[in-house]
Amino acid sequence: MTGIPVPAKERLLLLMRLLEKHTHAGNAEPVTSAQVENLTGWSRDTIRKDISWLGMAAGMTVGGNAGYEPDLLVPLIKKALGLDCRRKFCVVGLGRLGSAYINFAPSELAEFEFAAGFDTNVNRVEILRSPAPLYPAYKLSEVVSRLKIEIALLCVPSEAAQAVAEKCVAAGILGILNFAPVALSLPPEIAVRNMYVADELRSLAIKMSK
């Protein structure tokens, strides 16, 4: 569903995680607006407005209270956010950071599949244990194209990030989660999310200073 504001999408994503956690904990009761407000700090009006983007069925009331059924709401959120299809991802760069992510496969991320890992160091590719095949970097284009991988976790040094990102895009990658502390220059249709630890720490410090 297009037209949902970015802040609402971010809140819906967190709401989906809360609902899934509620279900995994064995809770059969609906989740109320008051419960979400207590957990997130969002106002009930904000919660209701975000959920209204999903259609009338998402705002069902249960027992006279504004209760939301996780089994109903989670699929609607996934569909609205484009998370209702399984996507393959790869890890490019298998140093300390990248090697940590090759075994990152929590059960709640069923919509993603780790399909491959790549590194310029052939010895590292041969030694590391992984649930998915690891390849030397020169095979990136062929493997990404053959396996129809859509997302790349870019865990390479800053000086290599732009060139490697361009190779990923040329191979067919549509989205990049960039861990290198550099701004990538890529076509606008490529989705990029930057994960800079330094910036996250600074953002946290700014919030704390308030």
What does this molecule look like?
- The chain is α/β, with parallel strands linked by helices.
- The chain folds into 2 domains: 6-81, Winged helix-like DNA-binding domain superfamily/Winged helix DNA-binding domain (Arc Repressor Mutant, subunit A), CATH 1.10.10; 87-199, Rossmann fold (3-Layer(aba) Sandwich), CATH 3.40.50.720.
- Helix content is 45%, strand content 16%.
- It has 9 helices and 8 strands.
- It has helices at 6-24, 33-40, 44-52, 70-81, 96-101, 122-127, 140-147, 158-171, 197-209; strands at 31-32, 67-68, 87-92, 112-119, 134-136, 151-154, 175-178, 191-194.
- The strands form 2 sheets. A 6-stranded parallel sheet has the order 5-4-3-6-7-8. It has a two-stranded antiparallel ribbon with strand order 1-2.
- α8 links the parallel β6 (151-154) and β7.
- α1 (6-24) packs antiparallel against α4 and α7 (140-147) crosses α8 (158-171).
- The chain is globular and about 55 Å long.
- The chain starts with 5 loop residues before the first helix and ends with a helix.
- The relative contact order is 0.10.
- The model has no long low-confidence stretch (mean pLDDT 87).
